[in-house]
From TrEMBL:
<protein>
    <recommendedName>
        <fullName>Adenosylhomocysteinase</fullName>
        <ecNumber>3.13.2.1</ecNumber>
    </recommendedName>
</protein>
<feature type="binding site">
    <location>
        <begin position="296"/>
        <end position="298"/>
    </location>
    <ligand>
        <name>NAD(+)</name>
    </ligand>
</feature>
<feature type="binding site">
    <location>
        <position position="240"/>
    </location>
    <ligand>
        <name>NAD(+)</name>
    </ligand>
</feature>
<keyword id="KW-0963">Cytoplasm</keyword>
<comment type="pathway">
    <text>Amino-acid biosynthesis; L-homocysteine biosynthesis; L-homocysteine from S-adenosyl-L-homocysteine: step 1/1.</text>
</comment>
<dbReference type="Pfam" id="PF00670">
    <property type="entry name" value="AdoHcyase_NAD"/>
</dbReference>
<dbReference type="InterPro" id="IPR020082">
    <property type="entry name" value="S-Ado-L-homoCys_hydrolase_CS"/>
</dbReference>
<feature type="domain" description="S-adenosyl-L-homocysteine hydrolase NAD binding">
    <location>
        <begin position="188"/>
        <end position="349"/>
    </location>
</feature>
<comment type="function">
    <text>May play a key role in the regulation of the intracellular concentration of adenosylhomocysteine.</text>
</comment>
<dbReference type="InterPro" id="IPR042172">
    <property type="entry name" value="Adenosylhomocyst_ase-like_sf"/>
</dbReference>
<dbReference type="GO" id="GO:0004013">
    <property type="term" value="F:adenosylhomocysteinase activity"/>
</dbReference>
<dbReference type="InterPro" id="IPR036291">
    <property type="entry name" value="NAD(P)-bd_dom_sf"/>
</dbReference>
<dbReference type="GO" id="GO:0005829">
    <property type="term" value="C:cytosol"/>
</dbReference>
<keyword id="KW-0520">NAD</keyword>
<feature type="binding site">
    <location>
        <begin position="154"/>
        <end position="156"/>
    </location>
    <ligand>
        <name>NAD(+)</name>
    </ligand>
</feature>
<dbReference type="Pfam" id="PF05221">
    <property type="entry name" value="AdoHcyase"/>
</dbReference>
<feature type="binding site">
    <location>
        <position position="153"/>
    </location>
    <ligand>
        <name>substrate</name>
    </ligand>
</feature>
C-alpha cells in the first residue's frame, strides 16, 4: 500500500470490507461489465475525480471501476452516518484510493473531509447531494477553470443544482444521474423502499403488521416506502402537497390527508421529500404517544430536530439509533438515526442489485462528460436515452431475460402516418 493521505476509522477492518465488496459485486453484473471494458480502454486515464458518496460496498465497486478506467480517484462520505468503516479501510488498503470518511463523524469533520476531496483539485466531481459543487462555489472557485463537469446521484442534489442553474451560478455541466430511468425508477423506488424498512426494523425490532404507517411525500422514494410498508401489513397513510401525486396515492389504495391529521394516528412516520421541516413543531404537538419518526431523504432537515429538542423535557437512548424524547405531557417520540437517512444510519443502504444500475449510470456519466466536454453547455443535463436503455438491456441479459424486437413492418408503422384505421 502506497496511499499516505486518508482519514478512516481503522485500517484493520480492510479484510472484512474486501469480502463484503466481493459479495456485493455478485449482484452488480452491469457495473462489472463496464469495469472490464474500462480496464481495456482506459477512457478516464489521468482524470482526477473527487467523489462524495455514501461509502458502502456498492460505492466501493464503483470506485474500483473508475480506477480501472484510469481515473485518479478520491472518496469522501456524503453523510456523517452513512459510512461503512470496513469498506473505507478496504479501499485504502487494497485499492490505494484515498478515503475521507468515518461513520458517526461530527459535522466539523464531515466538512473537513469535503475540503480534503476538493484539495484533490478534481476535474470531475461525483456528488450525492451536491456538497462538492456547493463547496466549489462557496470556497474553491479557483477549481472552476479546470472542471470538466460533475455528476449527481440523488433527487435532493438535482434540486440544489437546478436552483444554482436558475440563479446563473452553476459554472459547468452536470449530469443528473438521478433523472435516468434506470436510476430513479429502480434505485429510488425498490432500493429506498426495501432499505428504509430494513433500517426501521433493525433500529426498532417493532412489528409493522397492523400498525399505521405515515409516508411523507409520494415521489419515487416515498412510493417505494409505502409499497414495502403495505407489503409488511401496515396501514399506510400518505401526506402530499402535489394534488396529482396525492390522487395517484389514493388510487394506489392509500389514505391521503394533511400531516397534522395523520400524526395523531401514526405509529410510524417516515419522510422522503427533499424538503425542510416536513415534520415540525405543530406535528410534535399532536403526534401519537410512542410514535417512531424516521427520515429517508438526503438531509436531516426534513425533521425539525432543534424544535423537538426544545419541546422535550428529557431525552434518552433506549436502543442504538433510537433517541427517545419525552414531552411535558408525558408523550414519547422516538427519533431514529438522528434524523439522517435511516436506511444507511442503521442498515446497509440499498441492495446491490439496484445500485448496479445507479452506479453503471455514474460510471458512464463520467465517460460521457469527458467525451463531450467541448459540446456540453453549462447546466443540468440528463444522460442520453440510448445509454439508459443500454444499462437496462445489460441488466436484463444478466438476469437471463430476453425481450421482443420490432419487425421491419412494425418499425415502418411506428415511423409513418399514412396508415390509419
Amino acid at each position: 500500500m502506497t496511499t499516505s493521505s486518508y482519514d478512516i476509522k481503522d485500517l484493520g477492518l480492510a479484510e472484512e470490507g474486501r469480502k463484503r465488496m466481493e459479495w456485493a459485486e455478485q449482484e452488480m453484473p452491469v457495473l462489472r461489465l463496464i469495469r472490464e471494458r474500462f480496464e481495456k480502454e482506459r477512457p478516464l486515464a489521468g482524470i482526477r475525480i473527487s467523489a462524495c458518496l455514501h461509502v458502502t460496498t456498492e460505492t466501493g465497486n464503483l470506485m474500483r471501476a473508475l480506477a480501472a478506467g484510469g481515473a485518479d480517484v478520491v472518496l469522501a462520505a456524503s453523510n456523517p452516518l452513512s459510512t461503512q468503516d470496513d469498506v473505507a479501510a478496504a479501499l485504502v488498503a487494497y485499492e490505494e484510493i484515498p478515503v475521507y470518511a468515518i461513520k458517526g463523524e461530527s459535522n466539523e469533520v464531515y466538512y473537513q473531509h469535503i475540503k480534503a476531496a476538493l484539495d484533490h483539485n478534481p476535474q470531475i466531481t461525483m456528488d450525492d447531494g451536491a456538497d462538492l459543487v456547493s463547496g466549489i462555489l462557496k470556497d474553491r472557485k479557483d477549481l472552476i477553470e479546470s472542471m470538466i463537469g460533475s455528476t449527481e446521484e440523488t433527487t435532493t442534489g438535482v434540486i440544489r443544482l437546478k436552483a444554482m442553474a436558475a440563479e446563473g451560478v452553476l459554472p459547468f455541466p452536470v449530469i443528473a444521474v438521478n433523472d435516468s430511468d434506470t436510476k430513479h425508477m429502480f434505485d429510488n423506488r425498490y432500493g429506498t423502499g426495501q432499505s428504509t424498512l430494513d433500517g426501521v426494523i433493525r433500529a426498532t425490532n417493532v412489528l409493522l403488521a397492523g400498525k399505521t404507517f405515515v409516508v411523507a411525500g409520494y415521489g419515487w422514494c416515498s412510493r417505494g416506502i409505502a409499497e414495502r410498508a403495505h407489503g409488511l401489513g401496515a396501514n399506510v397513510i400518505v401526506t402530499e402537497i402535489d394534488p396529482i401525486k396525492a390522487l395517484e396515492a389514493v388510487m394506489d389504495g392509500y389514505r391521503v390527508m394533511p400531516m397534522e391529521q395523520a400524526a395523531p394516528l401514526a405509529d410510524f412516520i417516515v419522510t422522503a421529500t427533499g424538503n425542510k421541516h416536513v415534520i415540525d413543531s405543530n406535528t410534535f404537538a399532536v403526534v401519537k404517544d410512542g410514535c417512531v419518526i424516521a427520515n429517508s431523504g438526503h438531509f436531516n432537515v426534513e425533521i425539525n430536530i432543534p424544535a423537538l429538542e426544545q419541546m422535550a423535557v428529557t431525552k434518552k437512548q433506549p436502543r442504538r439509533f433510537v433517541d427517545q424524547y419525552v414531552l411535558p405531557d408525558g408523550r414519547q417520540i422516538n427519533l431514529l438515526g438522528e434524523g439522517r437517512l435511516i436506511n444507511l444510519a442503521s442498515a446497509e443502504g440499498h441492495p446491490s442489485a439496484v445500485m448496479d444500475m445507479s452506479f453503471a449510470n455514474q460510471a458512464l456519466a463520467s465517460e460521457y462528460l469527458l467525451k463531450n466536454r467541448d459540446s456540453l453547455g453549462v447546466g443540468v443535463h440528463a444522460l442520453p436515452k440510448n445509454l439508459d436503455q443500454e444499462i437496462a438491456a445489460l441488466k436484463l441479459r444478466a438476469m437471463g431475460m430476453t425481450i421482443d424486437v420490432l419487425t421491419p413492418e412494425q418499425e415502418l408503422y411506428l415511423n409513418s402516418w399514412q396508415e390509419g384505421t
